[in-house]
Amino acid sequence: MTSGRYPRxxxxxxxxxxxxxxxxxxxxxxxNACEFDLSFxxxxxxxxxxxxxxxxxxxxxxxxxxxxxxxxxxxxYRLLDHSVRSLDLTAKSQKASMFVLGWxxxxxxxxxxxxxxxxxxxxxxxLSQACSLCNSGEKENMMHFLADCQVLGEFxxxxxxxxxxxxxxxxxxxxxxxWLPLAKFCSAAWAYRSELVSHFNWDRS
Length: 205
Ligand SMILES: [Zn+2]
Known about the structure:
The chain has two domains: 6-71, no CATH class; 98-199, no CATH class. The radius of gyration is 25 Å and the shape is elongated. It has helices spanning 6-17, 21-31, 43-71, 98-108, 122-125, 142-148, 153-160, 167-177, 179-199. The chain is mainly α. Bound molecules: zinc ion (ZN). Zinc ion (ZN) binds at residues 131, 133-134, 136, 144, 149, 151. Zinc ion is lined by residues 131, 133-134, 136, 144, 149, 151.
């Protein structure tokens, strides 16, 4: 852009006075340990610096998000092998069907709306975190759903050959030992749970 254009004049004034977006950029550079050396005179350098800043922001966000996720208590994904990629949206072909991958993502990401949820307690909101299906009084989290709940035993038997699973076995399955039975179990057991809570039982939703 030529030097006489209004947007250029405006941008240069903002740059000189260190205000508005320039101030925000400086702050972002400091937060992400990037050199704040932005200049209108060196267009190529400016683009490289902004690209580098963008990449650092992305990396920092990803690292912080991962740390927060792994620090959260009572979530099954803390225990999983994180080198496993259940779904790679950039891959040209997937090894498993979308039915399987969808359920694997939900199971590994702890995304089912079970009663046991982080940052809530039985006392806090008056709603129980106990399992909706069995009378064990156990917190209904992903491990209880996959491994322990007695009401779902027949679905485990049909898909895994056992009515209960050890927690180690659940982690092995989630880490890719056998995803098809996992998807079939989750699909059938989740439908059964939905049917029960819509007619006979209760849940927190
Ligand atoms: Zn249960």
